[in-house]
């Protein structure tokens, strides 16, 4: 997103289950919404301002042991280190 903000997502047009990683600008994961329900209109809220939402195949967060407080490193995050 252009600036950090609280984000609300849904799965209305998504046919597969996902894990959604809500990430601060420094790369810190603040929330993991695991195994979301395909085609659902239920709101999935970041609960706090975030800069990024990374969607991965459902079960990925559990498989790699990812949890809030972990860091994601990507060139979009500038000089974030993990």
Our Rg estimate from Cα atoms comes to 12 Å
Order of helices and strands: EEEEEH
What is the topology, as strand order, of the major beta sheet? 3-2-5
| Residues in β-strands, percent | 25-35%
Low-confidence stretches: none
Shape, per Cα inertia axes:
globular
Helix/strand structural class: mainly beta
Termini Cα gap: 21 Å
Largest sheet: 3 strands, antiparallel
Number of helices: 1
Helix content: under 10%
Number of distinct beta strands = 5
Average pLDDT works out at 93
Can you walk through the features of this model?
By secondary structure, the chain is mainly β. The protein has one helix at about 60-65; strands spanning about 10, 20-25, 30-35, 45, 50-55. A three-stranded antiparallel β-sheet has the order 3-2-5, with no helix packed on it. The chain is globular, with a radius of gyration of 12 Å. The two termini are about 20 Å apart.
Labels describing this entry:
26% strand
